[in-house]
Amino acid sequence: MLDSSDFPPFLLKLLRAARHLVVFTGAGMSAESGVPTFRDAQTGLWAQYDPAELATPEAFRQHPKRVWDWYAWRRELVARARPNPGHRAVAEMERYVPQVTVVTQNVDGLHQDAGSSRVIELHGNLRRIVCSRCRREVPREQWAPAGPEGVPRCPHCGGLLRPDVVWFGESLPGDAWRAAQQAMRTADGVLVVGTSGLVYPAAGLPLEAKAQGAWTVEVNPTPSALSAEMDYVLRGPAGEVLPALVRAAWGDAAGS
Ligand code: APR
């Protein structure tokens, strides 16, 4: 098990002094909950498809049932998933830091399940279903039966239903994007957890924070496209590193 000697002492000081901490997360955050990363999810039945064939507006227009079924499969997987110790450590930080903002690229809702109170979802949420035409959210009991395309329809306008996630080529929800930028502007420090840092514009956010004077830490078992820009790099899985970091920074207060 990791202990405080595994972490740079100055990083622990920075954490203790932080007034506003941003935790920026990607698919690796949920890996230990059994949610495959986007690319790992291409297994079994779905291995024959490229993500670009499943997560684009063009794919949905051309093969609506294929895209709907893939998301239905992911939705079931996420429904069975539980937050892991990494998610719980992030939620626990709210006890010690006056303001903690989670900015996530994940669509699984596991940060909220773990108890984080301020979560900005940049790429939407898999659990919400909206109409592809009128954009209204449609709870499951209101889905109208599927037509010949094999996808349930909107009870209001008849449009095809889809997951409320951001597909490649779509813009990010404006309010989430603005809230994330604002969080980066006021952050003392940013923990960058479980992201490859390859998908823009989200991946640019930690660098914006850094440019505004925030310190940055990466938590990831393998190097990412952001590693070279980070002030500190903690190599290991989120579910091990984050709980140990909380214990090391806040010691007795964190119950160790
Ligand atoms: N703990 C921390 N990090 C981990 C763990 C773990 N247990 N396991 C894997 N990782 C890291 C990997 O090393 C990798 O850097 O998580 C990262 C996952 O990268 P991606 O699959 O590219 O996920 P992400 O960065 O979230 O992708 C961004 O792209 O696929 C689209 O919209 C989708 O939101 C997603 C976006």
Description:
- The protein has a domain of 164 residues: TPP-binding domain (Rossmann fold, 3-Layer(aba) Sandwich), CATH 3.40.50.
- 34% of the residues lie in helices and 16% in strands.
- The chain is built from 10 helices and 8 strands.
- The strands form 2 sheets. Strands 3-2-1-6-7-8 form a 6-stranded parallel sheet, sandwiched between helices. A two-stranded antiparallel sheet has the order 4-5.
- Helix 7 links the parallel strand 2 and strand 3.
- Helix 1 crosses helix 10 and helix 6 runs parallel beside helix 10.
- The protein is elongated, with a radius of gyration of 19 Å.
- It binds adenosine-5-diphosphoribose.
Which characteristics define this entry?
single chain; 256 residues; alpha/beta; Rossmann fold; binds adenosine-5-diphosphoribose
What topology emerges from the helices and strands here?
Elements: H1 9-17, E1 20-25, H2 28-31, H3 51-54, H4 57-62, H5 64-80, H6 85-92, E2 99-104, H7 110-114, E3 119-121, E4 124-131, E5 161-165, H8 174-186, E6 189-193, H9 205-211, E7 215-219, E8 232-234, H10 238-250
Parallel strand pairs: 1-2, 1-6, 2-3, 6-7, 7-8
Antiparallel strand pairs: 4-5
Helix pairs in contact: 1-10, 6-10, 8-9
Bound molecules: adenosine-5-diphosphoribose.
